[in-house]
Every structure is written in C-alpha cells, then in structure tokens.
Amino acid sequence: MFAKVVLVFTALAAVVAAGSSQCNAGPVQCCNTLTSASNSQAAGLIQQLGLSGVGANVPVGINCNPITGIGAGSGSSCNANPACCDNVYTNGLGVQCNPINVNL
User: So which residues are the signal peptide here (predicted)?
Assistant: First the structure.
C-alpha cells in the first residue's frame, strides 16, 4: 500500500512539475469523481449553479480542487482523479474535465 501511495505521489509530482503544459485552462484538479453531466449528483450541482447548455455527455468532475504544489498543504496531492477542467466552480463542480494519465 505504501509503495502505491509513493508511486501516485511521484506521478503527481511529475504532473505538477509540468505545470501549464498539462492543462490549458488552469491548474491540474483533483476530483473525487469523474463522470458525465447526466449523473444525478452532477446534474444537481449544475442546476444549483444555474448553468445552461451543459449537455448530458459533457465530462464533469465532482468535488474538484486544484493541486497547487508538492509538499505545500492539502492541495499538494491527489488520492482520487487528477484532471484538467475548463471551468471549476465554487461548489467543486468541474466542467469539461478530462482525466490526466499519470502512469510513468
């Protein structure tokens, strides 16, 4: 288990070190769930924000937070799904989120 955590941390370090080359619209996000906008939880968050024009097949992230840097607080690692999102809202909803392959 420890080896797996170290591997994920090392992979994320490479992603964060790559910086903006990984995401065009902002920092790499750590999302608890990556799904489509048709997911009931995602649909509720979209409705809560009053967003229109988000199609059912749009990839979204739930509970997304930026990965800010290695070893610097809670935003320094990701135990879930690293992704690039075009927009992330205050309720943690990411829209147009695509997973990042962190396999080295």
Answer: 1-18
Residue 17's nearest CA partner among 68, 65, 61 is 68
How many residues are present in the chain? 104
Residue 9 in this model has a pLDDT that exceeds 50: no
| pLDDT for the residue 13 | 45
Given the structure tokens 């797996």, which residue do they identify? Answer: 4
d(CA 39, CA 16): 29
Element (H, E) at 85: strand 81-88
Residues 6+ apart with CB under 8 A from 31: 61, 62, 63, 64, 80, 81, 82, 83, 85, 94, 97
